[in-house]
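Re: Re: token formats

Sure, here are both.
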Amino acid sequence: MTLEGTVAVVTGAASGIGRASAARLAEDGADVAIVDLNTDGLEGTRALVEAHGRRCLAVQVDLLDRQSISAGFGEIERGLGPVDILHNNAGGPARGKTRTFPNATTDQWDEVLALNLRSVADCTREVIGGMKERRNGRIITTSSEQAFKGGRGFTDYSAAKAGVLGFTRSLALEMAPYGVTVNAVCPGVIRTGLTDNMPDEYIQGTLSSIPMGRMGEPEEIAHAVAFFASPGAGYVTGSYLLVAGGRTLH
């Protein structure tokens, strides 16, 4: 289904799921603004978007800084036009590390909640007024299987991703009368640069917990994002899609 004539924004687009989603939305016809703090990574994503013949705007934004977010979205609207699709994708554990709750500092909690939950609200706030006025729009959030199953060392991350689901469902109720849909994708263990650097014994233990016996690929998450962004999902809101290889069924 075509996204011709639309403008999409993907946060955390320098690599992994964000890069794959940006490329897929461009393949489906959207012009794409890609947002991240990592400008080198954004250039690689830009090449994929432009390979599909779409306009691409790379914007460096610190998602922990509200002023940076506001400035970035202002640049996007001036450069590409009003935003039709927002994929709130950026997130992750504290600097890639995990700590059990007794050993997790309040600063770590603040950082994880700010990156994974507060930034979702802050970015959404930048586009929701225009979507409401135009009575059309797609908000897609990246939650996680951790919102359902939890994980040792992930109390902060699991709490944040469960919060993303609560935000998604509540905002869906508020925006439904205006034709704006709000949905979430919940990835399981996905092959990214982070997993590539993990010890083999950890990888083997993780694979044994996945009924399908393998990690997912970023492109498999991008397919779910593309569905929620598509015209065919116009009657789907407040929903979530687990893309986790059956791992939450244990």
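Second one below.
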Amino acid sequence: MLRVAYLSSYSPRQCGIATFTADLSKSIDNLKVIEPSAIMAINDPGSSYNYGKEVVWQIDEDEIASYEKAADYINSSDLNLVNVQHEFGLFGGTWGEYLLTFLEKLNKPIVTTMHTTLFPDAKIFQTSESADAHNRVVNGIARASSAIVVMTNMAAHILHEYYGINKDEINVIPHGTPSFPFVPSTPAKKELGLEGRTVLSTFGLLSQDKGIQHAIKALPEIVKEHPDLLYLIIGVTHPQVRMGEGEKYRKRLMRLVNRLSLKENVRFHNRFLSKDELIKYLQATDVYICPYIKKEQLSSGTVTYALGAGKPIISTPFYYAEELLAEDRGILCKFSSPKSISDGIRQLLDNPQKKAHIEKLAYEHGQSMTWPRVASKYADLFKELTQ
């Protein structure tokens, strides 16, 4: 039977890709159509983790020899295929170029899941040299991979139109979500001690790119009309951000809350939630807020989970949100605009029928993205490439 290795960060590392890989690999294992997963875990510099037995090899992010040894291990093993979970910040070298050393040495089929896909001339590139280095990495991944998986049609369009990757090699498989029951928020609120509150929430690892300051600035006028409102900001600071600047961003947000007299209406949960805790807090949520500030983002696990739970989402129009929330499945607000966020909150809280309509559409769409369905699509692709 087919045996697959997943090259990725992995739980318990606090990282969105690690959580994604754990969810995906375990969901594929549950199908019982291929052998149990083998994880090749990427460790960030200076870190080590207490991994489960499914982790068969560890790679030090910044040591190029570590990638070569990992490729040798796979080549000499009974593993049939490697699924690379790719994010540029996950691998060592300029734009994660150490990954290419691993891919070029490998003699097994490779499926690369690309979590971020940038236009070749994106504003994020500060110099032409940086853009060229990024583009070399993308082209190197494409050459080495038997197939590429992306999560949106926009990402597939970018890879084909701007990097010349063959359409037949690109597969659109959505980000997965747990199979949530469609339930009212009241029981979960009672369990979490949030009775009588109108709950807004934002989940995820904190960094300035999340734009949470704009959501906080949107609240004072709304609180006058809905004094029971409570905005939950749930998640620890991103580990790489914390290494570079500590808790500077979180402290800035807390000062903003104090300055706007919102201490009774904003609550920080400085914890990395387990999946069960995340599900419970999502079920208690009345409106999910996603105020990201970068247009280029092409995936978001927390937005996917909120949609899967049937929650009305107010989001800035980054590429992933534009596609996921199309056809009235959510409300798009302007970038860096507290007023636009507050207008969106009003639309939902002052119009229960509209809120219920969006919840229904969101939940129905989320059913096509549950982890068992996503896992089945990956398993079919793996089997196709190895047959």
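The chain has a mean pLDDT of 96. The chain is about 45% helix and 15% strand.
- S.
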